[in-house]
Design brief:
The complex is a heterotrimer. By secondary structure, chain B is α+β, with helices and mostly antiparallel strands. Helices cover about 25% and strands about 30% of the residues of chain B. Chain B has helices at about 45-50, 95-105, 110-120, 140-150, 170-185, 195-200, 220-225, 230-235, 265-275, 360-365; strands spanning about 5-15, 20-30, 35, 60-65, 65-70, 80, 155-160, 190-195, 205-210, 215-220, 240-250, 250-255, 260, 280-285, 290, 300-305, 310-320, 320-330, 340-345, 350, 355-360. Chain C folds into 2 domains: about 1-55, no CATH class; about 85-320, MetI-like (MetI-like fold, Orthogonal Bundle). In chain C, about 70% of the residues lie in helices and about 0% in strands. Chain C has 15 helices and no strands. Chain C has helices at about 5, 15-25, 25-55, 75-80, 85-120, 130-140, 140-145, 145-155, 165-170, 190-215, 220-225, 230-260, 265-270, 280-290, 295-320. The chains are: A mainly alpha, B alpha+beta, C mainly alpha.
Chain lengths: ~325, ~375, ~325
């Protein structure tokens, strides 16, 4: 304890206060792995559930929904897919075979799966392409050029994204009906662009804003025009960001249920999301494994993309996704 | 060889609400390195950007070697520029960065290759040509930025605070390198900085800017020894000049702690230049000498001593103001001790409280008894530029 | 030297003319860049919203595209505000507000937890291989899934059946009625929807928080350890204050984006039992594309739009004020 004589080492005790087990060294390493386990169990549950059950027959699902599927692995789905493409396996299996096939294989029979997948891909790629090309130009203008009425135009441009899609759905349905674009890829791509384009403008504007200030100026001193600086310097270095935004728009289209549901009802012209919902209505208990297979596929493709995207995504969303640090 | 002339260049922003460059006149001679220095926001970068063509002046004229370039876009001006953040193109290698300007101007492959290798050789970055900017250190990026700028044989070479992102040691190295480079290229160069020390050590001439105005253009030693305004005197020099708010009456300047009777020539200058009895007396720290107590103008107590190696900075309080003196380290002083102060009067400046210099003692009172009266002492920032 | 000759040399030709126009009128150039986007948006958002959406809300929609839709004045609005649709309207507003009030805070807590966890290192013991990036990716599984797929899967898992594993787990702790399971009974259905929604949505906030947490200088944590702060205090006095603006913005975004969404309630409970989980967006959807009363649905949409415009404007204002 401190004495009257002034500071001495006795003022300090240099003894451990509290337990010798510290949070940092002893509890945290354990707690964080438990927490990781709990989190992952919750997050992966639907993925695992749909994944394993898609490989079971209905009887097996009812017996043990969480168990590993009892499959003979005779009909691996991708084996079939290759077979179908090469023409060795008929697209529609014969009735006698059907009973022995797994959910994945009989999906092709019970459910026009290839068509849905194709339609979803075409629409998603088309939407992402259109929205990204248009967005690159206007996002660049909003981020780095000066012109009159910039803020109002920006608000107008991103408004469509903040608006609930259900409010856009009715007018767009009527418009597409008037233009006889129902059940067409073009109609769906245009309709999807209504909400992906504002999103892409938003994200890319954030990206362009974060680029160093003097790049275009340096290019202009080096002999470019303003437009030349955009094409020769800004675009090449934005390739990764543009690719990310393209993928995000692709996923937004892939995810969308409402627009696809109202604009298309034949299998060739609607996407996976409304298709699996329709499946529930028509097949439910008897063909639960089909729903599982469709659902699993609709999740699996985007999950793979997100795993690939995630590093870009953290930057993209946090700089452009409406959040300033 | 090209010179650049700025003639009444004015640049405003926000519809004229902000005047960044206020009718500036400046001539950059052929082959000269001129440093634009001033506090941040004084308009020095905007002036440079006007020269580059990145900004178009609202009024005034810019000519390069007699050609009017005021309205030309940057690509047609044959200038090259180094930016503070270097602005290297992240998606290009060092080689591609350097060849870009030549490619844009349609040079053929061999010329490009030859020029790039020549510039890389000068900047000693020949082994970095295949790297990308994010694989380089700050110093290397700086070299690439310089290399990219010299590759094209510019008519005018512009540098916008190129050293401010480097650490102190590297900065000192690059200072001399840029000077050597500039001499080798023999091209009119404008170097912008906010660091007065950098300005002093680099410039053939220095242009001191404040609030959109060029206050004084002169070689470094003139800027230091004969500043034409309170602002220039205060901005240039480290440790800063000591400024005393003083009053002048009937041939006597009252600095508060002591009075001084000024010679008649100075009294005449002050009488004609002042509109009240207020005057600001400026004394550089090295012009204050420390003597035995009782031998000087007054005795003071030493507050703090900062040893600088061969010299030391001594701080003391005169009245309410902190005063700095630079004396040789050999002089034996102690913190808390009492010393006498003496002033070397020929180097003392008298300023109007609004800023302009009235007189430098040594200029008016000819120390060598070769008097020429006070003519030419009143400083005029732009005067010496006319040819 | 060649330098002098280069000054003032123009490239000439068409390119030169275009250049000089663009250099002269920088503003026009900015506008030119906007043309593709504005044309698209005008055609597929502004025009239909104003012309089709607004006009339709005063009409009685007929499915036959060749027949004209008769004007009915304010009847559609009257239906929802005063007429027989009033009860459903008011109830679904209540459901929507409650849904927001549950989903957004849950989202926030889960996302913050995930972000803090994923800021830790997960080195494989002994091998020194950092596995964090992989877990970080897996955390996004929900956000990557289509909302319909998420709702469908959770809805199936919440059914009272052998395969309804979430129901099975819940009965261990709660007294969930066996007829209907979680999705068919009050108040369980609401929680059933919320859990699916949070599973699907928390990834967005997680990504944003992760970036926020990563931007906190580690020196702050070190100095606080020297100052003797415990982990909870470090969270309270360093992490939270640092994330404050991010949290406020993100809550605002999620509130705007959750309102009007309908896929998860639709897929999980179809709005049931009865109307218990029927959010406003789902009502509009049902009326429009279930009953094909597009005029009525458009009127309800307009009411909805007007009520959320302030929300959107506040958000956009905070986003553009640095302009």
């Amino acid at each position: 304890m401190a004495t009257q004589d002034g500071p001495t080492t006795e003022k300090f005790s240099f003894e451990r206060s509290g337990s010798r087990f510290s949070w940092e060294d002893h509890y945290k390493p354990v707690v964080k792995y438990i927490a990781l386990g709990v989190f992952l169990a919750w997050i992966m549950l639907p993925v695992y559930y749909t994944g394993v059950n898609s490989l079971k027959g209905p009887g097996q699902i009812f017996k043990t929904a969480m168990g590993i599927p009892y499959v003979t692995f005779d009909p691996l789905p991708f084996g079939d897919l290759i077979g179908i493409i090469t023409g060795q396996v008929p697209l529609i299996p014969e009735a006698a075979d059907a009973a022995q096939l797994s959910a994945w294989r009989s999906m092709w029979d019970a459910f026009p799966f290839v068509e849905y997948l194709l339609a979803t891909t075409v629409v998603s790629v088309g939407t992402a392409g259109l929205a990204t090309v248009a967005a690159v130009f206007s996002a660049y203008a909003f981020a780095r050029l000066d012109f009159p009425a910039k803020t109002p135009l920006f608000v107008l441009s991103v408004m469509g994204f903040t608006f609930p899609i259900v409010l856009l759905a009715i007018p767009i349905f009527v418009l597409m009906q008037d233009l006889t674009l129902l059940n067409t890829y073009l109609g769906m791509i245009l309709a999807f662009t209504a909400f992906t384009l504002p999103y892409n403008i938003w994200l890319l504007r954030g990206f362009f804003e974060d680029l160093p200030d003097n790049l275009e100026e340096s290019a202009r001193v080096d002999g470019c025009t303003q437009i030349g600086a955009f094409f020769r310097v800004i675009l090449p270095l934005s390739r990764p960001a543009i690719a990310s935004v393209f993928l995000l728009a692709f996923l937004l289209a892939w995810h969308n249920f409402l627009m696809a549901f109202i604009l298309g009802n034949d299998p060739l012209h609607t996407t996976l999301a409304p298709a699996i919902l329709q499946l529930r209505g028509t097949f439910f208990v008897k063909n639960l494994h089909y729903i599982m297979a469709g659902t699993f596929l609709s999740m699996f493709v985007p999950i793979l993309m997100y795993m690939y995207l995630q590093t870009h995504l953290v930057e993209g969303l946090s700089s452009g996704g409406g959040v300033k640090g | 060889m090209v010179d650049a002339v700025l003639d009444n260049v004015r640049k405003t922003f926000n519809d004229g609400q902000v005047v960044a460059v206020d009718d500036v006149n400046l001539t950059i001679e052929e082959g000269e390195l001129i440093v634009l220095v001033g506090p941040s926001g004084c308009g020095k970068s905007t002036t440079l950007r006007c020269i580059a063509g990145l900004e178009t002046p609202n009024s005034g004229r810019i000519t390069f070697g007699g050609h009017d370039v005021t309205e030309l876009p940057p690509k047609d001006r044959a200038v090259s520029m180094v930016f503070q953040n270097y602005a290297l193109y992240p998606s290009m290698t060092v080689y591609e960065n350097m060849e870009f300007g030549l490619k844009m101007r349609g040079a053929d492959r061999e010329t490009i290759d030859e020029r790039v290798r020549w510039a890389a050789d000068i900047m000693e970055i020949g082994d970095l040509l295949d790297r990308y900017p994010d694989q380089l250190s700050g110093g290397q990026q700086q070299r690439v930025a310089l290399g990219r700028a010299i590759v094209r044989e510019p008519a005018i070479f512009l540098l916008d605070e190129p050293l401010s992102n480097l650490d102190a040691k590297l900065r000192a190295v690059m200072r001399t390198e840029i000077q050597e480079l500039q001499r080798k290229l023999d091209v009119a160069t404008v170097f912008v900085t906010h660091d007065q020390e950098e300005a002093m050590s680099m410039g053939d001439r220095i242009a001191v800017m404040n609030a959109g105005d060029i206050q004084q253009v002169a070689p470094p030693s003139d800027i230091y020894h004969d500043p034409n305004s309170l602002f220039v005197a205060d901005f240039i020099g480290s440790p800063e000049i000591n400024l005393f708010r003083s009053s002048y009456r009937n041939g006597t300047v009252d600095l508060g702690a002591f009075d001084v009777d000024v010679p008649d020539v100075i009294a005449t200058e002050l009488d004609s230049g002042l509109d009240s009895d207020e005057v600001v007396t400026g004394i550089r720290p090295e012009d204050i000498n420390v003597v035995e107590p009782g031998n000087g103008l007054l005795d003071v107590e030493v507050q703090v001593i900062e040893p600088m190696g061969d010299t030391q900075i001594i701080y003391f309080d005169v009245e309410d103001s902190r005063v700095r003196a630079v004396v040789p380290s050999a002089r034996n002083v102690t913190e808390g001790g009492t010393v006498g102060l003496d002033v070397y009067w020929p180097n003392v400046h008298m300023f109007h409280p609004d800023g302009p210099k009235l007189v430098k003692w040594g200029n008016a009172v000819d120390v060598d008894a070769d008097a020429e009266s006070g003519d030419g002492v009143r400083a005029d920032g732009h005067g010496e530029e006319a040819q | 030297m060649a330098a002098v000759d280069q000054i003032g040399q123009d490239r000439g030709g068409i390119e030169g003319i275009v250049d000089s126009i663009l250099e002269e009128y920088g503003g026009v150039q900015g506008m030119l860049f906007l043309v593709p986007s504005l044309v698209l948006l005008a055609g597929i958002v502004f025009y239909p919203m104003v012309v089709n959406g607004l006009i339709l809300s005063f009409q009685d929609f007929t499915l036959n595209p060749n027949a004209a839709d008769p004007f009915v004045g304010l009847e559609n609005y009257q239906y929802w505000l005063l007429g027989s649709g009033q009860a459903l309207f008011l109830f679904s507003v209540k459901v929507t507000v409650l849904y927001e009030l549950l989903v957004v805070p849950f989202d926030l807590v889960v996302a913050l937890g995930a972000a803090l966890l994923m800021n830790e290192k997960f080195e494989l013991p002994g091998l020194g291989i950092e596995t964090r990036a992989f877990w970080r990716g897996l955390m996004l599984a929900g956000y990557a899934s289509p909302a319909i797929a998420a709702g469908l899967t959770w809805g199936i898992m919440e059914q009272a059946a052998e395969y309804g594993i979430v129901y099975q787990a819940a009965t261990m702790f709660f007294d969930v009625p066996a007829s209907g399971g979680i999705v068919g009974n009050r108040p369980w259905a609401f929680w059933g929807v919320v859990i699916a929604k949070v599973w699907r949505d928390f990834g967005f906030m997680y990504v944003v928080f992760l970036a926020g947490v990563q931007s906190i200088p580690s020196a702050l944590y070190e100095i606080s350890k020297v100052d003797g702060a415990n982990p909870i205090q470090r969270f309270r006095y360093i992490t939270l204050p640092h994330l404050r603006t991010v949290i406020v913005t993100v809550v605002m975004i999620r509130t705007v984006f959750t309102v009007g969404k309908l896929a998860i309630p639709l897929a999980t409970t179809q709005g049931g039992p009865v109307n218990y989980t029927r959010v406003l967006g789902l009502v509009i959807f049902d009326v429009a594309f279930g009953e094909w009363a597009l005029g009525r649905a458009a009127a309800l949409g307009m009411l909805f739009a007007v009520s959320i415009i302030p929300l959107i404007l506040i958000w956009i204002k905070t986003e553009t004020e640095d302009y």
